[in-house]
C-alpha cells in the first residue's frame, strides 16, 4: 500500500512538472505571437530565446492559455470539483482540552459534509491512513495552546496540498453576544470570498472553497438556503463569519450570526499530505516580514 501511494505520488508530480513546463512555453509563445501582431517590443528573455521559435509555425492551433489556466486542467481538485461532495475529517491534536473539543464540534457544524473523530492516541501517519482508507477527501486538524485554539492545518487527499493557518480571536458560538441558539442549520451554505486579488489569494480561495459542497442552481426561493459563510481578507488576515439569514421583504434580508468567529492568517502551503514533512514548499511567510516594509500577499 505504501509503495502504491509513493508510485502514485511520483506519477502525479512528474505529470505536474511536464504540464508546468509546457504551460510556460505556451504562455511565452502566446506573448511572442501577440508581439509580432502588434509590433510592441518583447522582454529580452523571450525575444532572445531561440527555442521558442522552433516549430513556431505549427503552433498556431494551440489555444492562448496562460500557465494557470493550463494547470487548472490537472489540478488537485479536478476529480472533486462539482462532481462529488467533499468528505472532510475534523480532528484535533492529542489530549485536547474541553474548549478545543467544543471548537472542533463547531467546525464540524460549519462544514456540512464533514465528520468529527476523537483522535485518542493515534499518531499522524495512522490518522492519515485511516482517513484515506475511509475515502475521505480532506482533513482539518486543530491545535491549541493552554486551551486556546491557535492553529488550523488543512490537507487534501491523496496528493495535497497542505495549508497551515494560525488562528486568532477565536470566539465560540455561546460566547458571541446575541448569537443564534438551538440547532444549527446544516444546509449547504453560500460562500463569500472578498479581497483575494493576488494569485496567492486565488490559490487560497480554491483550497478553502473545496471543503464546502457545491450548491445547486437556485430555481426558486425555497431552494435559496439560509446560511452564508464569509471569508474576508483584511491585510492578509482572513476574517471568518458564519450567519443565517431570513428574507424580510422582496429585496431585503436580516442576518443573525451563528458562529464560530475567528481570524485566520496563512503561513505555509506545501505539497503532499499532512504526514509528509518533505513535500515541496509552494509558499511560506518569509522571516523578518514584520520588520520589513509592509506587503500584502493576498
Automatic annotation (TrEMBL):
* Brix domain: residues covered: 86-275
Example GO molecular function term?
Answer: single-stranded telomeric DNA binding
Question: Quick one: a GO cellular component term?
Answer: small-subunit processome
**Which keywords does this Swiss-Prot/TrEMBL entry list?**
Ribonucleoprotein
Biological process (GO) annotations? ribosomal small subunit biogenesis; rRNA processing
The protein in question is named U3 small nucleolar ribonucleoprotein protein IMP4
Which species does the entry assign this protein to? Answer: Pochonia chlamydosporia 170
